[in-house]
Amino acid sequence: MAATTHDINDLKRRMQGALGVLKHELSGLRTGRASANLLEPVQVEAYGTHMPLSQVATVSVPEPRLLSVQVWDRSMVHAVEKAITASNLGLNPQTEGQVIRLRIPELNEERRKELVKVAHKYAEAAKVAVRHVRRDGIDVIKKLEKDHEISKDDHERYSADIQKATDQMIQEVDQMLAHKEKEILTV
């Protein structure tokens, strides 16, 4: 169970963690434009282990619909190319020496709608996580009141503070979702 004292700052920190996860998940969703974040989930088999692409190459965005991956070690170019192809991002690598270029194809209307649904799923998971944190905070307050460590008035005030923080976080989730939805649907 949670701590036996009420700490609104700890609850807010945990709620911010849920927002951070949502932000990370949304950054990985493809829009019609190139973004270096698109390649974050790519794992490269390098030096006998799996490592993030960012540890073997530099990703840049020279044009709105082009990603450029500068591989640091010439022997790793093929492994990076293979990892990008295997990542199911729908990108076709074109290698020129130690530079891999990735053209971002146009998204069709059906694919855009699918991506919006995925974004909504991520947002709903973040809202659920925030509500779980709220529930944990309310449970602690109920226990404190039951053990006569806080008064009924304190219980009401703390509950209102937790609800206010929850509402604020849910509003931020909705704003992030609306922004990403607009970004995805913009042609």
From TrEMBL:
<dbReference type="InterPro" id="IPR036191">
    <property type="entry name" value="RRF_sf"/>
</dbReference>
<dbReference type="GO" id="GO:0043023">
    <property type="term" value="F:ribosomal large subunit binding"/>
</dbReference>
<keyword id="KW-0648">Protein biosynthesis</keyword>
<comment type="similarity">
    <text>Belongs to the RRF family.</text>
</comment>
<dbReference type="Pfam" id="PF01765">
    <property type="entry name" value="RRF"/>
</dbReference>
<dbReference type="InterPro" id="IPR023584">
    <property type="entry name" value="Ribosome_recyc_fac_dom"/>
</dbReference>
<dbReference type="GO" id="GO:0002184">
    <property type="term" value="P:cytoplasmic translational termination"/>
</dbReference>
<keyword id="KW-0963">Cytoplasm</keyword>
<protein>
    <recommendedName>
        <fullName>Ribosome-recycling factor</fullName>
    </recommendedName>
</protein>
<dbReference type="GO" id="GO:0005829">
    <property type="term" value="C:cytosol"/>
</dbReference>
<dbReference type="InterPro" id="IPR002661">
    <property type="entry name" value="Ribosome_recyc_fac"/>
</dbReference>
<comment type="function">
    <text>Responsible for the release of ribosomes from messenger RNA at the termination of protein biosynthesis. May increase the efficiency of translation by recycling ribosomes from one round of translation to another.</text>
</comment>
